[in-house]
Specification:
This protein has ten helices and 31 strands. It is of the alpha/beta class. It has two domains: 286 residues, Spore Coat Polysaccharide Biosynthesis Protein SpsA, Chain A (Alpha-Beta Complex); 106 residues, Hexapeptide repeat proteins (UDP N-Acetylglucosamine Acyltransferase, domain 1, 3 Solenoid), CATH 2.160.10. The N terminus is likely disordered. Its EC number is 2.7.7.27.
Length: 437
Amino acid sequence: MQGNPEANTQTPHTRFVSHLTRSTFAMILAGGRGSRLMQLTDWRAKPAVPFGGKFRIIDFTLSNCVNSGIRRIGVATQYKAQSLIHHLQRGWSFLDGRFDEFIELLPAQQQITENWYQGTADAVYQNLDHLRRTRPKHVLILSGDHIYKMDYGRMLAEHASNQAQLSVACIDIPIEEAQAFGIMQIDETQRVLGFSEKPQLPQAMPGRPDRALASMGVYVFDTDYLIAALERDAHDPQSAHDFGKDLIPHAVNDPQIVVHAHNFADSCVGMTAESGNLPYWRDVGTIDAYWEANMELTKITPELNLYDEDWPIWTWQEQLPPAKFIFDDAQRRGVAIDSLISGGNIISGATVRRSLLFSRVRVHSYATVEDSVILPKADIGRSAKVRRAVIDKHCRIAPGMSIGYDEKADRQRFHVTDKGIVLVTPEMLGQNIHHIP
């Protein structure tokens, strides 16, 4: 438990590192924009969006790989990848090629056709030469834009014991959210009998009309089967070249192929009694979801434990001085309450409540920040007020400016979600910032 470490009921996680993990190649699909994050992804791909005070979203998937003992990793990039590439080069270059460990960038290069990546399956197909060179026994296909902690070794072991050609990690979700996911039907042995990508009328789980079984976008393939499936799909003119729309339904409909459903609860890291022993997995694909997941971390006992030494989240971070809180006058006191404050920050005679501040943020005297996510190098001016907002990197909030208090005025200047969260970017403020986001 983060707020009270002595009361933590989480038991140490035993890593499932084995020959299976060492002989697995992980392909992380990190080329998508994430358009539902609106202007937050105007200059960066979704996996490069900052999260949790010091991380990028992709750090969670990469950390799961490294902590699971999977040290051969490819990252397929495409949309506005400079920020992502910059982060990977600085923070993820520690693997040792002498031991056949690597994280390799795989940008869309039109290697096979004159097209860029046309879908998730096509992104892997265009890198088949890399798979053939590395000769893995299994290929782990992952999305680079979800927040979760998972021991992939446990899924690999289950995949092998079931002699499956394909395994799909799944989690049960509310039926009203199911239209945004691939929905599965399974039998009592957890063999997948049906798979529908983003169905208009999702099928509920047997005996649970309010829940559906959703794919997490985490797949284990036997390499030989994956190569054959990708080559078949590439020559299908009717295919969208997507795992959820094409490859997985095709495999499920083939009686010769064993498609196994892996229950995420069996490999989730960090489930505690305080969280009801429920697995933590977040798709932070909207501004509301992104804000909520960050705000969750400010709780006394958040469901996602970032202080877990048994399963650390790795990242790159600057060498910065500690956060500094200055002035102690009655009306001018530098304080932060129920908040996460990163290195290099200065809270100068200002008040921060229930907020998450990334590095090098300045909050000037008499300013107030409440229930907000402030990205790196933002500057909150003197006497400014910010509430229920996401402030993008490099934003300069003018002295006395008010954000989150007058929805009508906010909608004229910024993006406001249906739940009233205000997104502010430098461009909205008329600030032309040339930087790597």
